[in-house]
Design brief:
Layout (H helix, E strand, L loop, with lengths): L2 H4 L12 E6 L2 E5 L23 H12 L8 E6 L6 H11 L8 E5 L13 H11 L11 H12 L5 E5 L4 H5 L9 E6 L3 H11 L2 E4 L5 H12 L1 H6 L1 H10 L4 H13 L5 H12 L11 H15 L3 H10 L21 E4 H8 L3 H13 L4 E3 L2 E4 L1 H11 L5 H23 L8 H6 L9 H29 L2 H10 L1 H7 L2 H18 L2 H17 L3 H14 L3 H17 L3 H17 L3 H17 L3 H17 L3 H18 L2 H18 L2 H17 L3 H17 L4 H6 L4
Parallel strand pairs: 3-6, 3-7, 4-5, 5-6
Antiparallel strand pairs: 1-2, 8-10, 9-10
């Protein structure tokens, strides 16, 4: 599992605004420098199809956004209220009305009831990662630590004008760390937390607090008219008012009532209201829990469910069993709710055990009844309605089989996506063996890589939830194979929190199975994440244990390489050299020229760090020759970039120019914007070393533009070097 086997040949790169061409140090051209930049991000949830005015509160939000405030601070508006009362809808609606205020984009993070649940539910660093990706920063351009990602987020947002919606927040201290240092930005925070927590955040930041309560009768009637039609309401206005009262003014309850009325068009509004009122008073149902509106949603859920045909009832129950991050209890009050559940038609078909066209029909019927929402082919199960469906599914005979079907579906879909990201890396799982070589739904080439990574990004939370759920159920084979299939995504996009937590579960599953191949795969994938995040002690523990149980010589070569690289990253090239040599010897004995070349590249870097320039040069030249013979243009270019840096440090300027120019040409052809920037920066150093200050400045500007294109902080550092 050396670099080329792990996916270096298929990196996801973000937006590219500038392409740099440098054939010789004397000649440098920049193409595309004046092209229009990418459109600003729009990452908000879809706006509600029917939003009722709440005009006074919208005006209050606009006034707060326009008010004077201390320099460098954004406007903060906290929308507090019970679940289902329309907090997110109001924030999205306001952002749509005021969109011209925010030329730099509209950003969104679902905090899912509390950020401190690190790991599968998402930690603070994961939230920063999501926001950075919305800004076009991903993969190798992300700092490895949470603190680094938060710092980069603040830097990227400084002096920009963005709208940021922090949805479902609970912990004020963590919300504070996500606030952009930009007086032109506006941050909406929605919460159903305690008012003491809301007041704490508001007091520290001068935030406006909007307490969102039930809809007024006027707005409730307007929503009901929009949902069921004027004629239905006009026939029984008093009944409509009674229905609004029993719904508690909750938009979600009103929508459910509308769904019930659409199915039973002969039902009078007054009759439905009376039935709900009787249930609320205990004469037609069990004891009523608080709050009123939330309980009404459950009663209306019963009404809607009772009118469903059997096939639709089954779908309603089984879909609620889809694994979701946050289904376990957590230390954070309310944190068990987690981010909202979103899924596609393929997952629904697997859960239900029906063909996709049949699943699509069932999903459409549930959307018509307002128990699901739909957006661009994905379906959202509102928390309160999902809780109602899960209660009905309690004791479901086919629950275990349904969850297993959807878990297997996610495994196969993830394997297909991973093979599209990098079809050449070695894998161990049976599903990889089955699907390798089969036609890919993504096609081939760079477009396939981007499409596969986009699918993995969209389904990432669901995939993590399946790992967690399958681990709890003891489906050990599924767990470790799904972790293996997440490699291309994690290697490319660096979601370290989830990478580490899923793979800890995967390693435990492999150990339970006692399968050496599974233990090897999980050990090296987890070890890589640990040493990349500088958790060297744990990385060495995992990798040394993996080495003990690994018998295959080529697998041992991979583990030895990773142990060596961990030592090298920790600043101990001497210890690194010992492991890297052992790894290289194994590759030599088994006639694996690419593996030999990769190890020689790392050995050359270690030799250079130890001051042995001659041996470093010998190793690197041999690595270059081996990569050229394979052929492996990308890794050959990496070696030539390293050689160029060594020549430059030694004052061999002609040799440095030759290697750097060749490396740059390959990286441009491969579309590697970040590596292009690094090499252009090295060429700038070369120009400065040869006394051409003007050309050095020109090259630095080109390198900075390329760094900017992929969201790297290095562009700003080049323009403003430390004094």
């Amino acid at each position: 599992m050396a670099d080329d086997q792990h996916g270096d040949a298929n990196r996801f790169e973000g937006h590219a605004r500038n392409v740099v061409q440098a054939q010789r140090v004397e000649v440098m051209n920049v193409y595309g420098a004046h092209e229009d930049p990418p459109d600003p991000p729009y990452a908000l949830p879809p706006p509600p199809s029917r939003f009722q005015d709440r005009a006074p509160l919208l005006r209050l939000a606009s006034e707060a956004a326009s008010a004077d405030r201390p320099g460098g601070e954004p406007a903060v508006i906290i929308v507090a209220g019970l679940r289902g009362v329309g907090k997110t809808a109001m924030a999205v609606h306001w952002a749509g009305l005021e969109r011209e205020r925010f030329p730099d984009g509209l950003l969104y993070a679902d905090l899912g009831g509390g950020l401190s649940r690190r790991g599968l539910g998402g930690g603070l660093g994961e939230t920063a990662t999501s926001l950075l990706e919305q800004l076009g920063v991903s993969g190798e351009h992300l700092p490895r630590s949470d603190q680094g990602r938060l710092a980069l987020l603040r830097t990227r947002l400084a002096r920009r004008k963005v709208f940021l919606l922090l949805d479902n927040a609970r912990l004020p201290g963590e919300v504070e760390r996500l606030l952009p240092p930009s007086p032109g930005s506006v941050v909406f925070v929605t919460t159903d937390g305690a008012l003491s927590e809301v007041g704490d955040l508001a007091g520290r930041h001068g935030a406006e607090v909007i307490l969102l309560r039930e809809l007024s009768e006027r707005d409730g009637l307007a929503l009901l008219r929009a949902l069921v039609g004027d004629e239905t309401v006009d026939r029984d206005v008093e009944g409509a008012r009674a229905l609004l009262r029993v719904c508690g003014g909750w938009p979600l309850a009103i929508r459910l009532a509308a769904g019930r009325l659409k199915v039973r068009r002969g039902t009078r509004l007054a009759d439905l209201a009376a039935r709900l009122e009787a249930a609320r008073d205990g004469t037609g149902g069990g004891p009523r829990p608080a709050p009123h509106g939330e309980w009404t949603v459950h009663v209306l859920g019963d009404e809607v469910y009772a009118e469903m045909p059997d096939e639709l009832r089954r779908a309603y129950r089984l879909l609620s069993l889809h694994p979701r991050g946050g289904d376990r209890p957590t230390p954070v009050p309310g944190g068990e709710r987690g981010p909202a559940l979103r899924f596609g038609t393929g997952a629904a078909a697997a859960l239900l055990g029906v063909p996709e066209p049949d699943a699509a029909d069932l999903l459409d019927a549930l959307v018509d009844r307002h128990v699901l929402d739909e957006d661009a082919g994905r379906y959202l199960f509102p928390d309160l309605i999902r809780a109602h469906a899960r209660n009905l599914a309690d004791g479901e005979d086919e629950a275990g089989a349904a969850v297993r079907r959807v878990s297997d579906w996610y495994l196969r879909a993830a394997v297909q996506a991973d093979l599209a990201v990098n079809a050449h890396r070695p894998t161990s799982g049976p599903v990889f063996r089955e699907l390798r070589g089969a036609p890919s739904p993504y096609g081939t080439g760079r477009a396939a890589v981007s499409a596969a990574l986009a699918w993995l990004s969209a389904e990432h939370r669901n995939l993590c939830a399946v790992v967690q759920h399958a681990g709890d159920r003891g489906w050990h084979g599924l767990v470790w194979q799904l972790c293996e299939a997440l490699w291309g995504f994690y290697f490319s996009l660096k979601h370290y929190d989830q990478w580490i937590e899923t793979h800890r579960i995967g390693l435990r599953a492999a150990e339970e199975l006692g399968d050496p191949a599974a233990r090897f795969r999980m050990g090296v994938q987890l070890g890589r994440a640990l040493y990349e995040t500088r958790r060297f002690r744990e990385a060495h523990e995992v990798l040394e244990r993996t080495l003990e149980i690994t018998a295959d010589p080529l697998d041992r070569a991979t583990v030895l390489e990773f142990i060596g690289r961990a030592h090298q990253d920790a600043g101990d090239p001497e210890r690194a050299l010992d492991y890297l040599r052992q790894s290289c010897d194994l590759e030599e004995r088994h006639d694996r020229p690419r593996g030999v070349a990769i190890k020689l590249h790392h050995i050359g870097r270690a030799r250079h760090a130890l001051g042995d320039a001659a041996e470093a040069l010998r190793c690197l030249r041999r690595a270059q020759s081996l990569f050229a013979a394979v052929p492996d243009p990308y890794n050959e270019a990496r070696v030539r970039a390293t050689l160029g840096a060594l020549h430059l440090a030694a004052g061999r300027f002609a040799e440095a120019a030759a290697d750097l120019d060749a490396a740059l040409e390959t990286m441009r052809a491969e579309g590697r914007t970040f590596q292009t920037a690094e090499i252009t920066e090295a060429l700038a150093e070369l120009a400065a070393a040869t006394g051409d200050a003007g050309r050095a400045a020109e090259l630095r500007r080109a390198a900075a533009a390329a760094y900017d294109a992929v969201g790297s902080l290095k562009g700003e550092e080049l323009r403003n070097p430390p004094s």
